[in-house]
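Batch manifest, entry 17 of 40.
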Amino acid sequence: MIVEEQWPFASVSSEITYQIQKEGFDYLDAPIRRITAADAPLHYAPNLVAAALPDVPRTVKLVKEVMYMKK
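Output type: structure tokens
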């Protein structure tokens, strides 16, 4: 699981994901998941910024999904 407040395209997390899959694919127990900002320009309104950036509930939900936990 890689969490980053950057756009998904050409970000640090995309390079980390590439290197992990290139060098350590056989050691992975689950697919690599990235949580990034929305692939759109960042807004000025605080509620839209909060919706576009990664947050704790979304991160916890996706971590549990990767760990094959139901709840």
